Amino acid sequence: MLGPRVWSSVRQGLSRALSSTVGGWASGEGRKVDISGVYPPVTTPFTATAEVDYGKLEENLHKLGTFPFRGAVGGVCALANVLGAQVCQLERLCLTGQWEDAQKLQHRLIEPNTAVTRRFGIPGLKKTMDWFGYYGGPCRAPLRELSADQEEALRLDFTSNGWL
């Protein structure tokens, strides 16, 4: 592992070496791309003389720029509480390169995911868990149970995508 001082100088050298080429790959000519947090860390390749192999590093970065999915860094993952097998299937499809099937499954998961994270939040997640045979239980204050109209809208998000 590189010490902080060595890594700092490597980073500066890398920045100078790649500043002209990295900008053009994903975001248009002349703009720099901040890939921190979006792509997995890139292993720094070294030559036999312990020098950074900038050519190989540039090649690795270029390969990362061709990945079909960008920007998915993390998530709330509430949907996995009720459709865990399907969320895991989505990951398997991505890992095995079955992009069309992954996209179809992802599109079926979008509305239910939005419903239990943003639209209805914890009360929606608890109600959905009850529907799927898990224990969602009552909401604790200050949260309130869903109204009848909200519950129907939540049910529609799951039935229209084939999950209920």
UniProtKB/TrEMBL annotation:
CDD domains per record: DHDPS-like (cd00408)
Keyword Lyase: yes
GO biological process assignments: glyoxylate catabolic process
MF terms in GO: (R,S)-4-hydroxy-2-oxoglutarate aldolase activity; 4-hydroxy-tetrahydrodipicolinate synthase activity
One term under GO cellular component: mitochondrion
Pfam families, sorted: DHDPS (PF00701)
Residues in the signal sequence: none
Keywords: Lyase
Keyword Lyase belongs to the record: yes
InterPro entries with a match to the protein in the record: Aldolase_TIM, DapA-like
Complex formation: Homotetramer.
Protein name: 4-hydroxy-2-oxoglutarate aldolase 1
Organism: Balaenoptera musculus (Blue whale)
